[in-house]
Amino acid sequence: GASAPLGAGKLLAAWAKTELSASDLDRKTLTVGYDYNLSKRTDVYAMYMNDKITSQTNGNSFGVGIRHRF
Questions:
Q1: If you average pLDDT over residues 1-20, what whole number do you get?
Q2: 21 alpha-carbon distance from chain centroid
Q3: Which residues pair with 55 in a beta bridge?
Q4: 31 and 12 in contact (C-beta within 8 Å)?
Q5: How many CA atoms are closer than 13 Å to the CA of 2, on its beta-carbon side?
Q6: In terms of Cα–Cα distance, which of 57, 38, 60, 40 is closest to 49?
Q7: At 51, which helix (H) or strand (E)?
Q8: Half-sphere exposure of 12 (CA within 13 A, CB side)
């Protein structure tokens, strides 16, 4: 994965590939997102994930959240 500063937050990206040796299945996952700082201790984030397994249709997920550090 990687992150890069962008505006008041960070652009996030990750890619993973899993090869299952006991079968002919591969799994590829791509995630992109943005983490925006509202203050020194609070941020909001949004993430999109695409997941593909051999011989299966693509799966897509989207998540949003807010985090506050005490």
A1: 93
A2: 25
A3: none
A4: yes
A5: 5
A6: 60
A7: strand 42-53
A8: 14
